[in-house]
Write a structure and sequence with these properties.
The protein has one helix spanning 2-17, and strands at residues 25-39, 55-71, 74-86. It is of the alpha+beta class. It has one domain (22-86). Strands 1-2-3 form a three-stranded antiparallel beta sheet, with no helix packed on it.
């Protein structure tokens, strides 16, 4: 009985995905940014021989958004963020 339902589900999915697609407007937008930060003399102690180390790092983010517009009242919006990390950092 389980095999019957699996075969029926497989045939149903094949029929659903093999039909012709309706007219859909697709809009793709997104943003990419890369930024950096430099910190000079990072110690909070005053009057020491050294003012502490300086450090610099860069980070980035890619955001892609896709809108599938079937009709004015029906829209599917998807968005994902990728590569959101500091450069040279461990993953």
């Amino acid at each position: 009985m389980k095999r019957f339902w699996v075969i029926l589900l497989t045939l149903g999915l094949m029929a659903a995905f093999s039909t012709t697609a309706m007219a859909v407007d697709v809009k793709v937008s997104g943003e990419y940014y890369a930024a950096g930060m430099y910190l000079d003399k990072t110690t909070l102690k005053s009057g020491t021989a050294t003012d502490g180390p300086s450090t610099a790092f860069f980070y980035q983010r890619l955001r892609v958004q896709t809108d599938f517009i079937v009709s004015p009242g029906l829209k599917l919006v998807t968005r994902f963020d990728a590569m959101e990390r500091a450069w040279g950092a461990t993953r």
